[in-house]
Amino acid sequence: MNLYPVSKLHFRHNYTFSTTYGGNENKILSIFYHIDNILYICTMPAKANFLNTDKLKQRYGKAESISLDEIYRFYKSVPKATAHWRIYKLVAMGILQRIGRGLYRIGTETVYHPEIPKSTKLIYQKIHQQFPYAIICAWHTSCLNEFTVHQPGKHSILIEAEKDVAESVFNFLSEQNKEVFFNPDKEVYQRYISGKKEGIIVIPLISQSPTQVVNDVHTTTIEKILVDIFSDNVVFAPFQGNEMRNIFVTAMQKYTVNISTLKRYAFRRGKQEELERYIAKLDLRQ
Fold first, then answer.
1. What is the pTM (predicted TM-score) of this model?
2. What mean pLDDT is predicted for residues 273-279?
3. Hey, CA dihedral for 139, 133, 209, 194, is it positive or negative?
4. Fewest beta carbons within 10 Å, which of 79, 123, 205, 239?
C-alpha cells in the first residue's frame, strides 16, 4: 500500500471504502482519519468560529447542565470524533466546564478549596503523626460562612476518621482537649456542643468520601459539604432550612460542582433520591 498526502475528503472516502471491505487498510486509514480530524480542528482559523461559541452560549447559557447527546446534536454536521475534540477545546478555552460524567455547563471551571484555620491544621498534624496510615478528613465549619446569609458565631472542627480508628482518634484527642465529642446525637449536640465557641467533633468517615488535599491537610470538597449538610441535621443543625438552601444555591453558582461525584456520595449516605428531588426544586440560575 502506498501512503501519500491526501485531502480530508479523500480520507473520508477511503475510510468508508475500507470499512466495507475490511483488511489492514481499515486500521491504517482509520488512524489517518482521526489524525486528520485533529489537525483539521487545530488549524482552523479562530475568526471562523467553527465552534459556534456564541450560538452555543445563547442556546445553553441558562441550562443547569448540557448532556453529551445535546452537544452531539448541536454539532450534528460533524462526526462524533470531531465533536469530542471540539468539547476538549471548549473546556480548554473556559467556555464549557465538566460537571459530571457526560455532563457540562457553560462557564469556566472553578474548583472549591476550603480555608483551613491554623487550629484545624495543628490538630490534623497531631492525628497524622499518631495515626500515619489512617485516612483522616479535617475541616472547619467556618468555611461555610461564604455561602450563608447569617454568620453563626460558633463553629466546630470536624475530624472524620476511618470507622476502624475513629474511636481511637477520639480517645487520643480527648487526652489533650476537653471539648471533644464523638459522633454526637441530637441531645448531646444541643446540650454540650451548640453553645461552644469551637468544639471538636469526631465522626466516622463514610467510605469513598470525596476529599482533597489543601495546605497539606486532607480535607473536604464542595460535593461532600453539600451532601453532609443535607444528610446530617445534627452536626449541621445551624445550617438547615433556608440556610441550607442558601448554601446550595450559592455554592452551585459560584463553584463547579461535579454532579456525578455528588450523586455517588449521596448514594453512599443513602440520600441520593432525596437530594436529587431537593436540587431539582432549587432555582440555580436566578
1. 0.71
2. 94
3. negative
4. 79
